[in-house]
Amino acid sequence: MLTSERKALIRRVLEEEGRLVAKPFSQRLGVSEDTIRRDLRELARDGVLQRVHGGALPASPALADFPTRARAGSAAKRALGRAAARLIKPGQIVFIDGGTTNVQLARHLPRELKARIVTHSPTIAVELAGHSGIEVQLIGGRLFSHSVVAVGAEAAEAISRIRVDSFFLGATGLHVELGVTTGDAEEAAIKRLIARQAAETILLATRDKIGAASPYAILPLGEIATLVTEAGVPDDMLGPFRAAGVTILTS
């Protein structure tokens, strides 16, 4: 079998089964495990998959740039934003993470809502600038352009002085074994810090992020209180998260 044929098969297995284990796959094809691991390394460099111990998982499609992500799956993101907005109650102090789905959350907050929104995303802050009932606290720092959020020591110091009722987290991957992941180490660290400052963490994730993985861990499943995702996601995909104690809210 040619290298291109093996790689095409690897892609198909990941799409159909959601994971690939290198050793049995190499035995199935009659090639060495080293050959398969080399294929996985090359596909990982191309952004096709995420390597994990013993094999690979699908790479999250949410690693594209911000404008591309903003155009993708807009109807689903609007539905998630609308559903998540109902979770914010008057008088609460809430931290809204950056990301294209959380922009929809900001857009769907009721006009009569009176609350304080903390964010390190200029995009979220601008969305809320005209909302008369919401006090916006914008965290500064070095701008991470992929997600359009502030990161770095300045942002971390400001976040460490804040306590919030809820953190609406954005991520690029959600996996039963690996938990919540994203594509940048520094951004992952900032997200972990925000979660530590929150009474609860609520994750917004479109269907394509469920079962996918990115290189950097944010939180284990046990630290997620609620998952807001799309209606129609098969129960066999959501069942393991419910078993881990995560409340599932569909849009």
Automatic annotation (TrEMBL):
SUPFAM superfamilies the record matches: NagB/RpiA/CoA transferase-like, Winged helix' DNA-binding domain
Residue ranges of every copy of the HTH deoR-type domain listed in the record: 3-58
Presence of the UniProt keyword Membrane in the record: no
InterPro entries: Carb_Metab_HTH_regulators, DeoR-like_C, DeoR_HTH, NagB/RpiA_transferase-like, Tscrpt_reg_HTH_DeoR_CS, WH-like_DNA-bd_sf, WH_DNA-bd_sf
Signal peptide positions on this chain: none
GO MF terms, alphabetically ordered: DNA binding
A UniProt-annotated Pfam family: HTH_DeoR
Keywords in alphabetical order: DNA-binding, Repressor, Transcription, Transcription regulation
Annotated SMART domains: DeoRC (SM01134), HTH_DEOR (SM00420)
This protein's name: DeoR/GlpR family DNA-binding transcription regulator
Native organism taxonomy: Bacteria, Pseudomonadati, Pseudomonadota, Alphaproteobacteria, Sphingomonadales
